[in-house]
Design goal:
The protein has 213 residues and is mainly alpha-helical. It is built from 7 helices and no strands. It is elongated.
Length: 213
């Protein structure tokens, strides 16, 4: 991965914008947790509770955070020339991945699918979870596959070209913005996919066994 020629200290990198951006992520997680307490049945499985929290967090991030990026990156707009708190937040992230500041066509295309597709699908699965509807498992597999693929298509083109748009010169950019803020959209969807696959496979095997008896 590439890095800036003169690395700055973490004290120079971690700004007030860094603080309120990360604070916003924490606030979204708190709201998602409250949502699970309010909308899920009291006897829900622990896995379902954590799934609800993740999907509520996922939906809010897609709609508000990534939705703001999408607004700032279409019809001739771009983050680097925009004003306001969301523009400042995205410029903070764009310091680590320059493409997010310049309305990169690949990134914007993926975000169109994320905001307009994955966000509403998260909400639909939340409704299924609240109703204890087993159909949730199929849609969790669909959503998880899309999010893992989206993560791959966000970074694979960069890796294949030597990562010219990534700044890995300090721990905040490398481990918080580029690694942590992206790897959770791989690890958690993969775990949810495996759990839902287990439910679907067991149900189909039980159905087949019943028909053959």
């Amino acid at each position: 991965m590439s890095s800036t020629p003169a690395a700055k200290s973490l004290a120079d990198i971690f700004t007030l914008t860094s603080a309120y951006s990360l604070g916003g992520v924490v606030l979204v997680a708190i709201i998602a947790n409250l949502g699970a307490r309010i909308f899920l049945p009291a006897n829900s499985r622990r896995v379902d509770k954590y799934t609800f929290i993740w999907l509520a967090f996922d939906a809010l991030i897609h709609f508000f955070f990534e939705g703001s990026f999408l607004y700032l990156s279409v019809f001739g707009r771009q983050v680097n020339t925009s004003t306001g708190p969301f523009a400042a937040m995205w410029r903070e992230y764009a310091a680590a991945d320059f493409r997010w500041g310049t309305a990169d066509a690949t990134v914007v295309s993926l975000e169109l699918l994320t905001v307009l597709g994955a966000g509403p699908l998260c909400c639909y699965i939340l409704v299924l979870l609240a109703r204890s509807d087993p159909a949730k498992h199929y849609w969790i597999v669909v959503l998880s596959t899309a999010e893992i693929y989206g993560g791959w298509m966000t970074f694979c083109p960069e890796w294949l070209t030597g990562s010219p748009n990534l700044d890995t010169s300090n721990p905040l950019y490398l481990w918080v913005y580029l690694f942590f803020m992206n790897v959770i959209w791989v690890v958690i969807p993969l775990a949810l996919m495996m759990d839902s696959y287990g439910h679907i496979a067991r149900a189909l095997r039980a159905s087949t066994k019943t028909k053959t008896n």
